[in-house]
From TrEMBL:
Keywords from the named record: Membrane, Transmembrane, Transmembrane helix
Domain of life where this protein originates: Bacteria
Transmembrane segments annotated in the record for this chain: 7-27, 81-101, 113-131
Source species of the chain: Chryseobacterium taklimakanense
Name this polypeptide is given: Uncharacterized protein
Amino acid sequence: MNAKEKQWAVLILLPMMYAITVTVYPFPPDFDISRFLSFYSEFSRPDLTWDKTVGLLKISPDIISGLLELSLAKMGIPVQFFFFSVTWLTIFLFLLVFRLLHVHCRKKEPEMWMFVFVLMSVSVYAVLSGIRNIHA
């Protein structure tokens, strides 16, 4: 495996490890993510009527998040899948932008340890607190 392939492996695996951490982390009750989970559990109920659905969407923090939660709940897809995929994509793009800026400014590829260092700047607490807004 050459250096470029190793770098892409790191760009894929580091966000994956981070996303697994966010997915299995016990969610504190006062974080925004708890509200997200409560909406998801309401949308998952089999006795949910159209009027209740519209009412929940009206009080949802944002309509896109509410529609996405409704879609996931009705398809039976676990909310952890959403957390994992959104977190992985966000962190992957964050590291990719870092790589592109480093190559543009320094005219060379970043070292492997730099990705880990940059990743440490992204707080798990911040992701948990704002995960319902990450997709926006």
